[in-house]
Amino acid sequence: MSRTRKVLLLVSALLAANLANADYRSGEVIVKYREGALRTRTTMNAIYDNVGARKIRRYAGLMKGFEHITLRDGIKVQDAIAELQRSGIVEYAQPNYMLYALPVMNPSEGGIPCIPGFEIPGCEPADGGGGGGGGEVPCLIPGLPFPPGCKDEGGGGGSPWPPGDPGDGDGGGTPPPGNRPELKPAPAEVNPPVADPQLSKAYGIEKVGAIEAWKNWKGSKDMVVAVIDTGVDYNHEDLSFNMWRNPKPGAKNDVVGYDFVHNDGLPYDDNEHGTHCAGSIGGVGGNGIGVSGVSQRVSIMALKFLSGQGSGTSADAIRAIDYAIANGAKVLSNSWGGKGDDENKALYDSIERAKNANVLFIAAAGNDGADNDKPDPSYPAAFDNDNLIAVAATDKNDKMAFFSNYGKKTTHVAAPGASVYSTVPGNKYSSLSGTSMACPHVAGAAALLWSKNPTWSYKKVKQVLMNTVDQLPSLAGKTVTGGRINVNKALQTTD
Question: Which amino acids are annotated catalytic?
Answer without folding.
Answer: 229, 273, 436
